[in-house]
Amino acid sequence: MLSLFIPVGIIMAAGLVTLSALSLHLFVLQVIWIAVGIAVTVFFLFFDWRSIFNVRWSIVAFYAFALFLMLFLLLHGSVIRNARNWIVLGPISIQPVELMKAALIFLYAMYFQRRHLAVARFSNIVTSFLFFVVPAAIAVRLPDLGSALIFFGIWFGFLLLLGLPWRRVLVTVAIFALAGVFVWNFVFQDYHRARIIGFLYPQQNSLGVNYSVTQSRIAIGSAGFWGKGYGQGTQAQLGFLSEPTEDFIFAALIEEWGIFGGLVVLAAFFFLIWRILAIGSDTQENFAKCICLGVAIMFSVQCFLNAGSVTGLLPVIGVTFPFLSYGGTSMFVDCFLLAIVNAIRQRS
Question: Residue ranges of the domains in the chain?
Fold first, then answer.
């Protein structure tokens, strides 16, 4: 159990230290959400998760509920920072896309537990594709391209790691490349195209579309190996770094704690992914194996997209860093998934 929660504790502690230097209010809220996550973990130590998630209709209902919330968000959600990403219920804001990530993991685990040996069958590829493409289409319209890419990553990750032949992989990539032309012309909004063009030409428009990644690079590049010290990050503290508590918290952390601090967080994260995959390999149930696989895929995709955006290796698409970034719903969902993985480990 400690081998699973020690790396998470390191990442959470790094996030809380960074938040405390930026916003005491968000720091307190994050502590509350972490406490809720711990309570969920303790709950599943004494409650058999299989009594709920081994029932087919409960997973379908979870997926349908998350999809309904996303549709409601698209039609009636509150616009915050030019996007409909939150359903506001008094003092609480809920992000339905976070619930959908967990719902997709359970849905794919249920679907592939008996089809993992036939993952290359065309009918299985198409059916599993439909599971993610509907919420992904809604996410793009919110607009939330980052979540749409995570949905895609969960689906494609399952196919790859369950043994999809490389010939089918290449065909799938080719199909999505052709679909990308359609998406670019008819689905992407202007700011989506601007961010991708800005990524291809990073030295241009540093005060416009490339402003966030330019400030992020300055924060990381000026940090050195040991950083500037607690509360001394000029880019984050003076407001130059965009979203330093969420999408760019990794850059804010490195600015204050240096490359060393960033490497510690990444090492803890990689160790966490290795432990999740090891727990999945140790269990005898295909359903539990697929859950662990899905959780590892989701965390890995989010980390890759966030770190890539922060360093300028990928376009800025607005993805949080698991267990590090501020976010109530995302922290709850991440802790919930980790609690299920720990319950699987406990009962292996």
Answer: 2-347
